[in-house]
Amino acid sequence: MAKESKLIDDEQRRRRGHRGGTREANRIASTLTALASDSPLVRGDEERKASAF
């Protein structure tokens, strides 16, 4: 019974498009993590953005 309601919940979530929101949240979280660790990749990206202006 619980399994059935879980499947229904998953289906409703899929229809509402919550998965896209989760993907966006994960992208933001990984960006913040990269910034917090001050990785060279992020630093290079910031320099590119600065030179674009």
Overview of the structural elements:
With 53 residues, this protein is mainly alpha-helical. The protein has one domain (2-52). The chain is 91% helix and 0% strand. It has 3 helices and no strands. The model has no long low-confidence stretch (mean pLDDT 68).
Topology:
Blueprint: H1 2-16, H2 18-37, H3 40-52
Describe this structure in a few short sentences.
The chain has 53 residues and is mainly alpha-helical. The protein is built from three helices and no strands. It has one domain.
Keywords:
elongated, 91% helix, 3 helices, mainly alpha, 53 residues, single chain
Structural class: mainly alpha
What count of structural domains? 1
Helix content: over 70%
Written as H for each helix and E for each strand, in order along the chain, the element string is HHH
Runs in which pLDDT lies below 50 for 5 or more consecutive residues are: none
Number of helices: 3
Q: Could you tell me the strand content as a percent range? A: under 5%
Instruction: Tell me, briefly, the overall form.
Output: elongated
- The residue-averaged pLDDT reads 68
| Count of strand segments | 0
Radius of gyration: 18 Å
Distance N to C terminus:
58 Å
Main sheet summary: none
Region (Disordered): 1-32
Biased composition (Basic and acidic residues): 1-13
